[in-house]
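Human: My hope is that you can spare some time for a protein that puzzles me. I am handing you a single protein, as its sequence and its fold in token form. Could you go through the record with me and say what the backbone is doing? Take your time, and here it is.
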Amino acid sequence: MSKNLLDIKDLKVNIDDIDILKGINLKINEGETHIIMGPNGSGKSTLAYTLMGHPNYSIEDGEIEFEGENINDLKADERAKKGIFLSFQYPEEIPGVTVEDFLRTAKSSVSGKKMGIITFKKVLKEKMKELDMDDEYASRYLNLGFSGGEKKKNEILLMSVLEPKLAILDETDSGLDVDAIRIVAEGVNKFKDENRSILVITHYDKLLSYLKPDYIHILLDGKIVKTGGIELAKEIDQKGYENIKMEFSN
């Protein structure tokens, strides 16, 4: 039986005195892939940032437990060290810092162990090959001049290097063409194993056929209103959210 990794209990969150999450309940076990879908403004990214400990998001009620420990009051870096990772929808450009230097520093910071330059170069090269990334990416400044697809692949590369227990992917598939979606999905599938879990936040079902998720959750107006399998995503793709909105309002 797989062990519970993340347990969200009646989570209520506001930002700038506006209630965004209004009672989220969600359990993720080791080795599972969960998908959160929902229209714009439903609270998807708020959930992602709250799980990562963004200081602008205030937890008003409820609990976030990670491996049985309440992490409500932990800062983002403390959560990262416990094994939580968030890929950003809009990754920052950092002039003067190469991809390789950033990743090596991030790995050392999260793991608490320094990795030799030569050893890290070998690891990085293998990870980049899996994502169909040219070796020259490593020497480029972080995200500077990168296309949208390159930035998203770079986030998956960071996830692969850090090897978190829970990876939260926020709109990783937005703006990607079919080939880039396939490569990103393959990177996610290679990362996932029986001990690692994935939480994907998305509008679309393009990524889902590659990921084969265990659960699809529909988030509306700050609450998870419906949970199902891949058929739920297909229903959304064909009919949109109107039927679910009507069902929920009734």
